[in-house]
């Protein structure tokens, strides 16, 4: 009779899977939970490949909800508006905050609302700078504005209208997520950062599926299932 061997990683479960990274048998639990976290799995590991090709049901539900939420934000947008929305999403996902001062979803919604209002008044020929009330939102808005100004260089009132539509969609997407219990439960994140957590998941999947960052012209297609 063959004596069962304990997993060398946890010391509790039975070692049943051959781990090419560790060169020994480990248990299925450690294989699943420590994969690419504590264990540097080689790309040709059969268990890693299988997990990527057949993700758990909970992961699939999460992905479906994520893409559904962002697809809703993109509904009826023109090509230029879709590209601009992706530009804003990319900025938000890579936004670096001062130490101990992370932005929350409310800051994103407030900053988007203030900048949208500025573009809306500009499209009517009125120059007025709307300002967010909270310091994190104001800081976010001040860093997003130059990016939008560069994107809209020479666009005139047409770009002002497009930018206003896109920023209102960002605000709406944040508010809608906080009205959707299923998305909050699936996120497993801080309730104050549900939208930002979703954005991070989707953008990470988008960039990891491509060898190089997508160009602006095709980027909007990448976040729609």
Characterization of the model:
With 225 residues, the protein is mainly alpha-helical. It folds into two domains: 1-54, no CATH class; 57-223, no CATH class. It is 59% helix and 3% strand. The chain has helices spanning 28-34, 46-53, 57-73, 79-94, 105-123, 135-151, 156-177, 181-187, 194-208, 216-219, and strands at 17-19, 24-26. A two-stranded antiparallel ribbon has the order 1-2. Helix 3 (57-73) packs antiparallel against helix 7, helix 4 packs across helix 7 and helix 4 crosses helix 9 (194-208). The longest helix is centred in the C-terminal third of the chain and has 22 residues, at 156-177. The radius of gyration is 22 Å and the shape is elongated.
Mean pLDDT: 82
Helix content: 55-70%
| Low-confidence residue ranges | 183-188, 209-225
Order of helices and strands: EEHHHHHHHHHH
**DSSP helical segment count:** 10
Which structural class should the secondary elements be placed in?
A: mainly alpha
Strand order of the largest sheet: 1-2
> How many structural domains can be distinguished in the coordinates?
2
Give the radius of gyration: 22 Å
Shape: elongated
The N- to C-terminal Cα distance equals 51 Å
Largest sheet: 2 strands, antiparallel
Number of DSSP strands? 2
Percentage of residues in strands: under 5%
Short key terms for the protein model shown above:
two-stranded antiparallel ribbon; mainly alpha; 2 domains; 225 residues; disordered C terminus; 59% helix
């Amino acid at each position: 009779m063959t004596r069962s061997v304990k997993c060398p990683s946890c010391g509790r479960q039975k070692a049943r899977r051959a781990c090419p990274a560790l060169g020994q048998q480990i248990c299925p639990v450690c294989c699943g939970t420590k994969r690419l976290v504590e264990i540097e799995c080689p790309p040709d590991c059969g268990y890693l490949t299988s997990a990527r090709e057949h993700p758990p049901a909970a992961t699939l539900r999460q992905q479906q909800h994520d893409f559904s939420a962002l697809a809703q934000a993109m509904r009826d947008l023109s090509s230029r508006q879709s590209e601009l929305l992706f530009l804003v999403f990319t900025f938000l996902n890579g936004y670096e905050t001062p130490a101990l001062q992370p932005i929350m979803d409310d800051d994103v919604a407030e900053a988007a609302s203030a900048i949208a209002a500025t573009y809306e008044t500009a499209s009517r020929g009125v120059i007025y700078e709307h300002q967010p009330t909270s310091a994190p939102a104001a800081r976010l808005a001040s860093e997003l504005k130059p990016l939008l100004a560069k994107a809209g260089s020479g666009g005139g009132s047409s770009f002002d209208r497009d930018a206003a539509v896109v920023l209102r969609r960002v605000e709406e997407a944040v508010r809608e997520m906080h009205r959707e219990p299923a998305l909050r439960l699936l996120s497993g994140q801080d309730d104050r950062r549900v939208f930002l957590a979703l954005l991070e998941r989707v953008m990470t999947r988008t960039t990891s599926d491509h060898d190089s960052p997508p160009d602006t012209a095709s980027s909007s297609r990448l976040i729609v299932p």
